[in-house]
């Protein structure tokens, strides 16, 4: 059973500068909620019961957002606006936090979750990818697949050739419809991408990945990529890619963010994920 999830939210968000100097991209508004709220909802709707967020010292606003606000609650009660208390986000379980002191990459951020995860499979949700699903949340689709395969499952989606350079790209044999046994993964290929299947920011991992990340550690200069550890995992275990049946919006790309906002103005904020 996959019950724990890591949400890494410690990156600088350089693609979103200058606004990301003060507003983390995870807090970009979509309707009246910040992006990360949808990602937490997706995790909860997928059956996750414990969340660890990896933040940085510039991301206290995320911690504040999910914290109880006794003062705001008291104010709303006093003003006879109790109905508004419900829309203020307080997850039904506490969210745990770890600070990544140095921006040493996505792999290093996930590595910090080792003690929290222990020896069980876990989910990773990257909060700059917002997934809109007609039926099952994207993460739930991966968890269902994990329950069958009991192996690492990475969410993928076809993207146009010109955008492959922004993502991890997998290749492999299609073993059943939309499920690929991965034989290679390349991080942000500048050319010669091995396929057009890009990693979407939703993963289910066996705990082995954490040992691999721990062994690798981040270099003194530069970043530890999650993809590097996945490459190594491929030598030890089978890993699968699953095409998720959700629409993906990468809010790190301005065009996608604008499309997502337009989408929400059309369907209004009722949709949860
Ligand atoms: C990360 C991963 C990449 C993945 C992407 C999905 O890149 O390293 O493999 O495709 O997320 O959004 P980042 O967006 O952190 O540059």
From TrEMBL:
* Coiled coil regions in record: none
Which molecular function terms from Gene Ontology are attached?
UTP:glucose-1-phosphate uridylyltransferase activity
Keywords attached to this entry: Nucleotidyltransferase, Transferase
List, for all copies, the residue spans of the domain called Nucleotidyl transferase: 4-262
Q: One biological process GO term for this chain?
A: UDP-alpha-D-glucose metabolic process
- EC number(s) for this protein? 2.7.7.9
Q: Which InterPro entries match?
A: GalU_uridylyltTrfase_bac/arc (IPR005771), NTP_transferase_dom (IPR005835), Nucleotide-diphossugar_trans (IPR029044)
Broadest EC class assigned to this enzyme = transferase
Say if the entry is tagged with keyword Ribonucleoprotein.
Answer: no
Does the keyword section mention Transcription?
A: no
PANTHER family in the record: UTP--GLUCOSE-1-PHOSPHATE URIDYLYLTRANSFERASE (PTHR43197:SF1)
Which named protein is this? UTP--glucose-1-phosphate uridylyltransferase
